[in-house]
Design a protein that fits this description.
Elements (H helix, E strand, L loop, with lengths): L8 H24 L5 H31 L6 H36 L1 E3 L15 E3 L5 H101 L4 H4 L8 H21 L1
Antiparallel strand pairs: 1-2
Helix pairs in contact: 1-2, 1-3, 2-3
């Protein structure tokens, strides 16, 4: 079905990729009838299934872009694009039905069973895991089933161990986080205490500084007074007849008192002479 519907570049690109996948699917299913080996048929069917998954993804992307561009396209163009999408879905469904037919034919006619042959090999391939049921006895089938169940149980046990270890690690991590949270709280309280102590110490230093400054002023004043007294005493000793110094209160007696004292001393001497 050739597309003559006007499309945006993105839709046109997706439409071209889908058509390429349809041609690849048509050629692939035509080759299925020519392949006689069951293993190769299974491999071919897997490749075709992967192409159909990619085609389904592209159709979904086509539908998403179509909805985004719905407001920009005229109604008739939108209808044509929607019909184009429906055509691609119908075409893909036909190949899906064809795949189911070949898969059913492959399983029923060849009686193929998938057996895990991975014991002793690191990464077994798909061809190594396919064995004809006609070549296996009932006991071998039962043993293979038991082995598969044993491996499944071991995988479940390992998963449980991983979950238990994960829970234990999570518990330890939560406990460590709680301890770190408490430690951070204690550190915060200690920092607050240190900040308060520093503030109080700063205030105390300021008060001490003011007291020291006051003491220095008082000591300087006392020093000046002492120096003044010493200077006056020195001057008095050097020049005792200095009237200016004599007139200083406390350093020399008044002149009147000095004369009275002299008179008293003279009277005492006279009185002593008369008695003798």
């Amino acid at each position: 079905m050739a597309s003559d519907v006007p499309m945006s570049p993105e839709l046109e690109q997706i439409d071209g990729e889908v058509q390429d996948i349809f041609r690849a699917l048509q050629n692939g299913f035509q080759k299925m009838d020519k392949i006689k080996d069951s293993n190769r048929q299974a491999k071919q069917l897997e490749d075709l299934t992967a192409k159909m998954k990619e085609c389904k993804r592209l159709i979904k992307e086509f539908d998403r872009i179509l909805k985004d561009e719905e407001s920009n396209n005229p109604p008739e163009v939108h209808k044509q694009l929607n019909d184009r999408k429906q055509y691609m879905i119908k075409e893909l469904n036909s190949y899906v039905t064809l795949r189911k037919t070949y898969q059913s034919s492959l399983v029923n006619n060849k009686n193929v069973v998938l057996v895990d042959m991975g014991a002793g090999s690191s990464e077994p391939t798909a061809e190594d895991n396919i064995q004809m049921a006609s070549d296996m006895t009932n006991q071998q089938l039962m043993d293979a089933g038991r082995e598969q169940m044993t491996q499944t149980d071991q995988a479940i046990d390992r998963s449980k161990m991983v979950v238990a270890q994960t829970i234990e690690v999570g518990t330890q991590t939560a406990s460590a986080l709680n301890q770190q949270t408490e430690q951070m709280k204690r550190i915060g309280n200690e920092l607050d205490t240190v900040h308060f102590s520093l503030k109080k110490a700063s205030q105390l230093v300021k008060e001490i500084g003011r007291q020291v400054a006051t003491d220095k002023c008082i000591m300087a004043l006392l020093f000046l007074i002492v120096c003044g007294v010493i200077a006056i005493i020195v001057v008095k000793i050097v020049n005792p007849h200095n009237k200016n110094i004599r007139d200083i209160p406390g350093l020399a007696p008044p002149a009147q008192n000095f004369q009275i004292s002299n008179r008293r001393l003279l009277s005492v001497e006279i009185f002593r002479g008369m008695e003798s």
